Amino acid sequence: MMCRALYFAVVAAVIGLGFSQSDQVSLMIEPADRKLLVLAGEQQKLVCKATFPNKGDQVVWQLAHQQDGNITLKIPDAELVDGQYTKTLDLTFVKFSAAYAGKYSCTYIPFGASSPTHTSTIDLVSVSAQRSDVAYNYGNETVTLHCTANLEDAKFSKWLKNNETIEKGDKYDLDDKPFDCVVNYPAGPLVLDMDKSINAVEDDTVNIDCDVKGWPTPEVEWWVNDEKKLENSSVVSFEEYKGVKGARLVLTGVTFDYDGMYECRAYSAKFNETSKKSIKLRVKDKLAWLWPFLGIIVEVVVLILLILFFEKIKKKNGSDNPHPHEQ
Ligand SMILES: *[C@@H]1O[C@H](CO)[C@@H](O)[C@H](O)[C@H]1NC(C)=O
Ligand SMILES: *[C@@H]1O[C@H](CO)[C@@H](O)[C@H](O)[C@H]1NC(C)=O
Ligand SMILES: *[C@@H]1O[C@H](CO)[C@@H](O)[C@H](O)[C@H]1NC(C)=O
Ligand SMILES: *[C@@H]1O[C@H](CO)[C@@H](O)[C@H](O)[C@H]1NC(C)=O
Ligand SMILES: *[C@@H]1O[C@H](CO)[C@@H](O)[C@H](O)[C@H]1NC(C)=O
C-alpha cells in the first residue's frame, strides 16, 4: 500500500512538472530592430527564432513582396527543446534593392486557427552608399572626408575607424582600411526579450538589464506588478545600460517585498510609442535550501517508522494465528 502511495506521489510530481512548463509563444527577429536600413546590392539575412507549445502550430514569414529567385526561405521542422517547440526560419535577400523594401512579419498561427495570434515585424528600408576615395598627397597638412546621407530624418552620428569611434585628436596610420560614417535614422522603441525569471536570495543585489533599441533613444521606466512605477530609494537605483539611461535596474539588498513582476517600458516621444517586456523576480529565503532537505529527512523518518510499525503488526498477527491450515 505504501509503495502504491509513493508511486502516486511520484506520478503526481511528474504530471505537476509537465504542467508547470510554460506554454508561451515567443517570436524574435534578428537583427533585433524595428526598422533596418539595408544597403542596396548587399546580401541581407533575417532570422526568426520562434518558440511555441504545439508541434502542429505554424510559424511563417509574411513577405512584403512576392517571393522570387532573389529571396531564399528556409523552413525547418520544429524541434523539441525543454518541452517547447522551436524553429529558426531564415529569410535571405540575395541582393537587396529598393524593390524589396517594406514590412516583413514573422507570424505564429496556432494549430487549427486561420489567422495569426502573434506577429513580429521588421521594416526594411533600402539605402545606397557611395564610397569615394579621397586622395591624400604626401606633405599635405590635412585631408577632409565628407559624409552625406540622402535620407530624410537621417542624422550624422560618428566616424569609425577599425570599428572604434574617432575622437578629436586621434591619430591614425594610413592603411587600406576605410573610415566608416555612422548615420542615425529614426526608429520606434523596441525592448528585446528578457529571461522569463530571475532568482535571488534575500539581501542579494540584483541587476535587471533592459536591452532597448530605437532612435532617438527612448525613455525607460520600470514598473512593478503592472501598478507601481519604481522610484529612487535606498534599495532601488538606475544605471545606464548599452548607452540608454536607466535601462539597468539595480536592487540593493532585496527583501521578500521585492518579489514580483518587473516591467521595462521604453517610450519614444517622436513615435508616441511604447515597447515593454517583463521578467519575474523570485526572492528566496536564505535558508531556502534547508526546508526541502528537512522535508526529505522527515519523510524518510516517517517511512522508516511506518515500515517498523507494519512489520510489528504483521509479526503480531503471525504469532496470534500460526499456520491455521496445517491444523
Ligand atoms: C532578381 O533581381 C534582379 C534585379 O536586382 C532582377 O533583374 C531579377 O529578375 C530578379 N530575379 C528574379 C528571379 O526575379
Ligand atoms: C593637397 O595638396 C595638393 C597640392 O598641394 C592640393 O592641390 C590639394 O588640394 C591638397 N588637398 C588637401 C585635402 O588639402
Ligand atoms: C563593430 O562593433 C559592433 C558593436 O560595437 C559589433 O556589433 C560589430 O559586429 C563590430 N563589427 C566588426 C566588423 O567588428
Ligand atoms: C536618484 O538618486 C541618485 C543618487 O541618490 C541621484 O543621483 C539621481 O539623480 C536620482 N534620480 C532621480 C530620478 O531622482
Ligand atoms: C499618443 O497615443 C495615444 C494613444 O495611443 C493618444 O491618446 C495620445 O493623444 C497620443 N499623444 C500624442 C502626443 O500624440
Explain this structure to me?
15% of the residues lie in helices and 42% in strands. Strands 1, 3, 5, 6 and 7 form a five-stranded antiparallel sheet that branches. Strands 14-22-21-17-18 form a five-stranded mixed sheet, with no helix packed on it. The chain folds into three domains: 22-128, Immunoglobulins (Immunoglobulin-like), CATH 2.60.40.10; 141-185, no CATH class; 186-286, Immunoglobulins (Immunoglobulin-like), CATH 2.60.40.10. It is α+β, with helices and mostly antiparallel strands and 327 residues long. A hairpin with a 2-residue loop joins strand 19 (236-241) and strand 20 (244-252). It has two helices and 22 strands. The protein starts with a helix and ends in a 7-residue tail after the last helix. The structure holds 2-acetamido-2-deoxy-beta-D-glucopyranose (5 copies). Residues 68-70, 95, 97 line the site of one 2-acetamido-2-deoxy-beta-D-glucopyranose.
Q: Biggest sheet, in brief?
A: 5 strands, antiparallel
The amount of beta strand, in percent, is 35-45%
Q: Termini distance?
A: 31 Å
Rounded radius of gyration (Å): 31 Å
Shape category:
elongated
Given as residue ranges, the uncertain stretches (5+ residues, pLDDT < 50) are 5-22
Count of beta strands: 22
Order of helices and strands: HEEEEEEEEEEEEEEEEEEEEEEH
CATH architecture of the largest domain: Sandwich
**Helical content, roughly?**
10-25%
Class based on secondary structure composition and strand pairing = alpha+beta
* Average predicted confidence as pLDDT: 85
